[in-house]
Amino acid sequence: MAIIEEVTGSDERWKEQRIRQKLDREIQELKVALGELKTVKPKKTTYTKKANVFFLEKRDAIVQIKKSEICLSMY
């Protein structure tokens, strides 16, 4: 019985680790996107992808969206 509990515990830890890795990857991707946006002029419109559709938006609006996504990912 104790062996089964240990396997279950390690399985849960593995799942938690995978979730952490996924969140870290998403945060890193958002930071890279913000870094790329810093090279764009503030008044220039830029394409952003939402689902399978591209939208034209102002750089400043995209920066705000990405920053809020990072904040949400950290919690």
Structure write-up:
There is one protein chain. The protein is of the alpha+beta class and 75 residues long. The protein has one domain (2-74): Helix Hairpins. Helices cover 69% and strands 16% of the residues. The protein is built from 2 helices and 2 strands; from the N terminus they run H-E-E-H. It has a two-stranded antiparallel sheet. A hairpin with a 2-residue loop joins strand 1 and strand 2 (53-58). Helix 1 packs antiparallel against helix 2 (59-74). The longest helix is centred in the first third of the chain and has 36 residues, at 2-37. The radius of gyration is 19 Å and the shape is elongated. The mean pLDDT is 78.
What is the compact description of this entry?
The protein has 75 residues and is α+β, with helices and mostly antiparallel strands.
What is the CATH C level class, in words?
A: Mainly Alpha
Largest sheet: 2 strands, antiparallel
Range of helix content: 55-70%
CATH topology: Helix Hairpins
Quote the distance from N terminus to C terminus: 36 Å
Q: What is the radius of gyration computed over CA atoms, rounded to a whole number of angstroms? A: 19 Å
State the helix count: 2
Name the overall outline: elongated
